[in-house]
Structure formats: structure tokens, C-alpha cells
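Subject: Sanity check before I submit

Could someone independently write out the C-alpha cells for this chain? I want to compare against mine line by line before I put it in a report. The sequence has 128 residues.
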Amino acid sequence: MIVKEIISTDKAPAAIGPYSQGVKAGGFLFFSGQIPLDPASGAVCTGDIAAQTELVMNNIAALLTAAGVDCGSIVKTTVFLTDLADFAVVNGIYGRRFPQAPPARSTVEVKALPRGVAIEIEVIAVAG
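---
Independent answer below. Compare away.
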């Protein structure tokens, strides 16, 4: 039987449905997709794709910190965009978080995301 531990922090947005912010299981950390929500207010970021991406990456960093790891522990990400024309901007911001040995990544365009945001990123990391 695999034991799982729930990862939670008030430094990242609270779950807006029946799911956990993160789960530690089998030596890995699985984090739910992060959208650009302000962790304190729960409000959607109304800025452009750059502002939304920065907030998402900050929220991911907060979750990693709560789990006792950092961006270097990430092994896989999935980026969901409502417009692939935003890819270059997102890629630039994302790339600054992984200057060496970036994780595997998939990027897909989707019709819509929760709360009408333009980006969501989910993360899998190795547990510390």
C-alpha cells in the first residue's frame, strides 16, 4: 500500500474544488495545476500573460517550499495555455526558473481554463 501525505500551504492559493494542493507519494510530489490566483485574497490576476505566469511560478515555488524542496526538484511540468501565441513570453519567464537542467515539459493549448485565466501549470517533483 502506498502511503500518501497531503502538502498544503497558505502561501499558495487554496484548492477551489475537491482536490489537494499537493500529494507526496512514492518518493514524488504531485502538485495540482496552479492558476494565477493571489494566495492571500484568492483573486484572479488581471494582468497580462507575463504577470499571470510570474504569479503561477511564485505559487509553484511556495508549494515546493512547503514540501521542503525547490525548483531543482521538479522533473516534469505540464503547461496549459489558452493561446499558444503566448508561448514565447511564458517560455522566457519559465526558463528563468530553470537555468540548468530544466525538467521535462509538455505545453498544450486548451479552449478554456478555470476562472477564465490564460495559463495553468502542473508540476511533478522528486521529494526531498
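---
OP: Matches mine. For the report I'm noting this point. Residues 49-66 form the longest helix (18 residues).
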